């Protein structure tokens, strides 16, 4: 499971200022943020480390854009539970969310 990290942690990991991070997102050489609340965004931690590793390895901006594109595609193909199901915190288990007249309950 990937941790989501907020901007201050991203700044700490990358060593880049906030404006540079957002400029690189626009340039598609840094992963885009994920909206996790009405005014809150975060990044998958593994994506930040993957881009850092590519920079350390001396990859070109074109190669990093390709990496960022691959990471974005993996996000879209990530396993998501079917509608009405929520993952159980215990591995391999699922719970179905039933909505009844009295509210929602897990079964």
Q: What low-confidence regions span 5 or more consecutive residues with pLDDT below 50?
A: none
Average pLDDT for all residues: 85
- State the helix count: 4
Query: H/E series, N to C?
Result: EHHEEHHEEE
Question: What is the CATH level 1 assignment?
Answer: Mainly Alpha
Named at the architecture level, the CATH assignment is: Orthogonal Bundle
Please give the share of residues in helix.
40-55%
CATH names the topology as Multidrug-efflux Transporter Regulator, Chain: A, Domain 2
Count the strands?
6
The total number of structural domains is 1
Multimerization state: single chain
N- to C-terminal separation?
24 Å
Globally, the shape reads: globular
Biggest pleated sheet: 3 strands, antiparallel
Structural class category: alpha+beta
Give descriptors for this structure.
three-stranded antiparallel β-sheet, 107 residues, alpha+beta, 23% strand, 4 helices
Can you put this structure into words, describing what you see?
It is built from four helices and six strands; from the N terminus they run βααββααβββ. The protein has 107 residues and is an alpha+beta fold. The chain has a three-stranded antiparallel beta sheet with strand order 1-3-2. A hairpin with a 2-residue loop joins strand 2 (34-37) and strand 3. Helix 3 (45-56) runs antiparallel to helix 4.
